[in-house]
Amino acid sequence: MASLQSMMQAHLPEGGVAIPYGRNTHIEVVDVATGQVWMSVQPVTRVESDRLKSGLDDSLQVVGIGTASMDAALFRYSPEGDGEPVRERDIGGRRFINVALPGEPRIHAGGMMQMAVNKAHVVGFEAGRALTIMRLPDGDFVEIVGSPLHDNELPLPDGARLQKIVLREPWVLELPTPTIAFFCNCSGLRSFQGPVILPI
User: Which pTM value belongs to this model?
Assistant: First the structure.
């Protein structure tokens, strides 16, 4: 069986950026003028993220701080930059990359937000992982941000239900471009994204 890291490497083009391995916490900020979202490449602690937030100028706003649910991730290119290296910049002394351009949000009853997000995101999960999938009539959405400890608190959209799957082998998937993303800030930031084809 191929390792997850070798499988991810096969999806990493020249100019792409791999995120440090593991289920780490990262901060995202949005450029107010363009709507482009930038993510810290290296993991951040809550103390570090609070310090970074306090030092931002008016051109940037914090989108959120979340813990990745995947074991590996990479970005092939920045939004609207297919074939070009991922865009990078320094923010507060840290390396950030341009990862997403979100569309207009739709708020479901209960408060879960849905939007189309332009990004080129590849994620990977180790064998043996138990994952939470949000199933909707128009597709399956895998948890990308958050922890399943508080699934019972999720305000699911109409017609949605949760399903647990356990991976027999490592799973690598390229999220669609654009990706449909569901967000909820309940017991921490949670996000389900896709639609995806389940491996089992």
Answer: 0.95
